[in-house]
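Q: Sequence in, structure out?
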Amino acid sequence: MQKKSHYKRLFLQYCAFGLILCVSLSAGLAEDDFLTEEELYGEIDEEPTVVCDPLESVNRLTFKFNDFIYMNVVKHLAKGYQQVTPDPVERGASNFFKNLGYPVRLGGNLLQGRMQGAWLETERFAVNTTLGVVGVFPAADRFESLQPLQPEDMGQAFGSWGIGEGPYLVLPLLGPSNVRDMFGFLGDRAINPLKKPYSVISDSEVQTAFGVTEFVVKSPTLMRIYTQMKGGALDPYSSMKNGYSQKRRSMIEE
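A: Exactly. Output:
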């Protein structure tokens, strides 16, 4: 009996030692101490993405907060929504809210002087709203001359004007951005008649219900994009920062 107690104490001591060692190693590898790709793989021929990030310490804290919300709330919300919603209904709801994004796409094209793109967006909106039953069905996709364009927004318009992206930002709940895209986002909301502060929906309860419904419908797409950008990188923050910056720059260049 004493021998069993002795072995049990030894086992518990080893477990405690292992736990302390793991905690010590985790504390030693602070978030700022992630290995870079160059340190891990050696010299990299491809030119790295240079992103201005003077607020990195604050951005990392916001990233951790967002990541917790995405992985513990939004992920399960999206999964539950997909499980209880039939695929045709899910696609129809997604198409409906995508169609309502017409004012933002129209404004992005007009601000860049893309009249052909603005007209095409208007044609698509008219066809999807009428033949597509308020946008539930993407009726415009059936016409060869009405194939969708890359969505445009105010942030892209500002970039096309030569306005620099400014410091990188991680916005609470909204995720990766930069100073230019943050102001672009505010502009997008200003020209969208269904969003505050200039919403045509006067009833606050209806406005809230509409916003919540839109978020739930878009949550699967949001999680898919988030996990793709985050990937399996050693430093998810840097991976998402570089991925977001590369994507936005390529969208502006096109």
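Residues 51-253 form one domain.
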